Amino acid sequence: MPDSVRAVEAVLFAAAEPMTPEEIAAHVGEGAAVETALGALAGDYAGRGVNLVERGGRWHFQTAGDLAHLLRREREEPRRLSRAAVETLAIVAYHEPVSRAEIEAIRGVQISKGTLDVLMEAGWVRPAGRREVPGRPLTYATTPAFLAHFGLENRRDLPGIDDLKAAGLLDPIDAALAEMGQGELESEDEGD
Fold first, then answer.
1. Beta-sheet strands, E only, within 30-124
2. Complete edge-to-edge strand list for the sheet that includes strand 98-99
3. Domain 83-158 belongs to what topology?
């Protein structure tokens, strides 16, 4: 297999989106016979589990049509968490083990039973025992699946407040209020 055919194959294999011959040529070099390489590759991949196809002037690899059903069964639809679930998950991760009452106190609103159920069903939160206080409330903690999903080795790898600010993930209104509160404290100190 000539080097230009291999180069075109590598570019298409790594591409996230279908590519035009001109886009492929920009990667492999203008002197490469991209059209010839595409024809050769399409022939090589014909009848295999993966085919090289052209759609609307763009080329890409796709699963052979007669095997597509194999992938549909395995595909899991990603579940989007509600804002309440994301907030609850963050509270559990940063404060574990934590009871439902503590979660509600931190969030400032009641959480529905379904919120914790969704997190437990996802395998990210688990019951962590009962507190030795009156009423013996059930506490919750994160699971190893939570750490694996978010690419963490342990809870100490969770981002801190400075990391969150740097990433722009904290609400600018909260940051402005915090600065305003700090400014008011400083001006009160100066007046004394």
1. 50-55, 58-63, 98-99
2. 98-99, 138-142, 125-130
3. Arc Repressor Mutant, subunit A (1.10.10)
Instruction: Give helix 21-28 / helix 3-14 axis angle, nearest 10°.
Output: 110
pTM of the predicted model as reported, rounded to 2 decimal places: 0.49
Q: Which helix (H) or strand (E) holds 175?
A: helix 172-191
Query: pLDDT tens, 127-147?
Result: 999 988 888 999 999 888 888
| Best CA proximity match to 126, nearest among 111, 104, 141, 139 | 141
**Is 3-72 in CATH node 1.10.10.10?**
yes
pLDDT at 23: 92
* Cα-based angle 112, 115, 120 (whole degrees, multiple of 5): 135
Q: How far is CA 142 from the centre of its chain?
A: 17
Quick one: which of 101, 103, 69 has its CA closest to 86? 103
Q: What is the pLDDT of residue 78?
A: 64
Q: Which two tokens stand for residue 135?
A: 């009423």
Q: Which residue has the tokens 């196809």?
A: 53
